[in-house]
Structure formats: structure tokens, C-alpha cells
Design a protein that fits this description.
The chain contains six helices and eight strands; from the N terminus they run βαββαββαβαααββ. It is of the alpha/beta class. Keywords: Signal.
Length: 236
């Protein structure tokens, strides 16, 4: 679905939807920005019951990472499978008895429901100091970032600060199309390749798009978007 020419509207399709300013679009191709709405066609019935269960991160220090995700984001450790002396896999999750904290579950209860839950985090650790892991904030790769929803961003930021969390930017601050943000969004070399395109991307996407988000990194440097539960959604 194309936006009417010159219309100032939500344009950058992140998880939450964003509203850019008119000046950001002044020099853009009239065909962009636009929103391509998804289809109302039902999914293949054969996929009934399919859902995203977990995502996995390779980590350099399993003890540090499990503690960080527990203390900072409230995920609870379900178990650590220690396959060998060097190789371990941990599973973490928020309680699913309700929104995190509204329905307490024991670890065994969470584990029983593990394959019927969404939003789990798997942390994989292989002890090999000769091959350090490189996060997406350092070098663009197929993993960009993941997003966390919080009910109160200012309160979350204040808490993160007390916990010593590393901020790339805070909510209300301008984003920079260089360094860790550029790498995480797959735009690491855009300034070198095409400075004009880089500036267009910044004005139309990052400058207005990420201003209300907080961006933090975990112990391995992976980017985490912290978004408000009440951010307006795209309209189409």
C-alpha cells in the first residue's frame, strides 16, 4: 500500500511503528517511504500450531550472561545442560503464568511448559579462548538485535543505570548512523560506500525512528532495543 505523495506518516517498520517528521522526507523518491501491508490470506492450515519458541545467542561467559539476563531483564534460568566440560546450553524465560511477575511459576512448572512457550532465550557457550565471538555491534552479521517491551521506559532506564548496563543511546537521544547502531542494522559500511545514501537513511529512518527507544548491549555486545508498551502502531 503506497502512502500518498508528501504524506507525513509512520514509515519505518520496526516492531512498534514510528512517526517521522516532514523534513526527513523532503528529498526522498516519491515512491518512498511506503508501507506494504501484509496479506489477510490465512496461513497454510498445515502450519497450525507453529510458533516461535526461542532464539539463541552464543556467549563467551555463561555465568555472566545468565546473571545479566536475570538481573537486568528478569528472565529466569530454567536449566543449564552441561554437555561436556567445555560446552553448555542454558535456557531462560519469563514466567508465563501471566505477564512477567503477575503469575509466579516454579522452575519445574516453566520447564514443563517450555515447548509451549514463546520468547525463550537459549544461551550457548563453548569455551575456546582462541576464537572470540564478534557481536553485531562490532561487525554486521545476520543477527541484528532483539526488542524488549517495558511498561515504563524512564523507570527502566533508571534501573538499568543502577545496574551498570551499557547504553548505546537513551530514549530521547538522537541515534547515530555510525558505530554499533549502523553495524547492528546492517549499515556498517554505508558511509564509506555512499555518504548521500547514508544521510538519507539517517534523516528518514534513524533520526526520527529510534529517538523514543533506549538501546543497550548485553555482556557480549548484542544490541537490545527497549521499547514502550504504549508506542503507537503503524496504521494502514
Amino acid at each position: 500500500m503506497l502512502l500518498a505523495k508528501g504524506l507525513v506518516a509512520q514509515v519505518f517498520l520496526l516492531a512498534s511503528g514510528l512517526v517521522p517528521v516532514a523534513s526527513a522526507l523532503a528529498c526522498r523518491d516519491p515512491g518512498f517511504p511506503r508501507i506494504d501491508a501484509g496479506s489477510d490470506t490465512p496461513a497454510d492450515p498445515a502450519t497450525t500450531g507453529y510458533f516461535l519458541n526461542h532464539f539463541s545467542l552464543n556467549v563467551q561467559n555463561l555465568t555472566h550472561s545468565t546473571a545479566w539476563y536475570n538481573q537486568v531483564l528478569g528472565l529466569r534460568l530454567i536449566f543449564i545442560f552441561r554437555a561436556t566440560e567445555k560446552f553448555s546450553i542454558a535456557y531462560m524465560a519469563h514466567s508465563h503464568g501471566g505477564r512477567n511477575g503477575t503469575g509466579y511459576q516454579t522452575v519445574r512448572e516453566i520447564n514443563r511448559q517450555k515447548n509451549n512457550m514463546e520468547g525463550l532465550l537459549e544461551l550457548v557457550h563453548y569455551s575456546d579462548p582462541t576464537e572470540p565471538l564478534m557481536p553485531s555491534t562490532v561487525h554486521a552479521n545476520t543477527f541484528g538485535h532483539f526488542g524488549v517491551i517495558v511498561p515504563d521506559i524512564p523507570a527502566a532506564q533508571a534501573r538499568f543505570e543502577k545496574l551498570g548496563v551499557n547504553f548505546i543511546k537513551k530514549a530521547g537521544e538522537a541515534a547515530k548512523l555510525e558505530g554499533p547502531i549502523a553495524e547492528s542494522y546492517g549499515l556498517g559500511g554505508v558511509y564509506e560506500r555512499d555518504p548521500k545514501e547514508a544521510e538519507e537513511l539517517y534523516q528518514a529512518v534513524l533520526a526520527p525512528g529510534l529517538v523514543d527507544f533506549a538501546l543497550v548491549t548485553d555482556p557480549d555486545g548484542n544490541l537490545i532495543e527497549v521499547q514502550s508498551l504504549y508506542t503507537p502502531q503503524l496504521e494502514f
